Amino acid sequence: MRAVDWCLSSAGAALVLATSSDEQHPAENMADGSSETFWTTTGMFPQEFIIGFPKCVKISKVAIQCYLVRTLRIERSVSKDPVGFEQCIEKDLQHTEGQLQMEEFPLPDFQATYLRFIIKSAFDHFVSVHRVIAEGTAENP
User: Fold this and answer.
1) Which phi and psi (to 5°) does residue 59 adopt?
2) CA-CA distance, 89 to 71, in Å (whole number)?
């Protein structure tokens, strides 16, 4: 079975929540598959966003392309609604002056219907998230 990026809007992903809103850089930009577009925070931390999948999926790897993120936590939920999250990963990212941070988190195959990304702290007052990727297969084809 071919791996799919479940975080793409074209794969049915939906941005359920984003704690910051900017008309020029909306949260939906994270799910368009392009590193050129992005979501930006409006200061103050933590900031978070939740991505919902069209069904329960099995994920083998999560990746994020971002800028100026210091501490990132990723949580998952297998509930029908975006509740009951459990922590999967928390990591301090390396500061990359003038270029995007690209972090990959290989995961043992685990199931999720929602992923919550929490940006706990940053290297500046604002951060940008360009892409999120959740590579995996459908749990129940």
Assistant:
1) -110, 135
2) 11
Q: Centre a 10 Å sphere on the Cβ of residue 124 and count the other Cβ atoms it contains.
A: 12
The secondary structure of residue 98, as a DSSP letter, is T
pTM for the predicted model, two decimal places: 0.94
Q: Which residues contact 23 (CB under 8 A, 6 or more apart)?
A: none
**Given the structure tokens 């799910």, which residue do they identify?**
31
Give CA–CA dist 136/76, Å, rounded: 14
Angle at 120 between CA 19 and CA 98, to 5 degrees: 95
- Residue-wise pLDDT for 91-120, tens only, equals 999 999 889 999 999 988 789 999 999 999
1 near 141, Cβ under 8 Å?
yes
Adjacent-strand bridge partners of 114: 52, 77
Q: What is the DSSP letter of 12?
A: T
Residue 25 to residue 64: CA distance in whole angstroms: 17
- Which residue has 């990359």 as its token pair? 96
Pick the closest to residue 117 from 80, 79, 91 (CA basis): 91
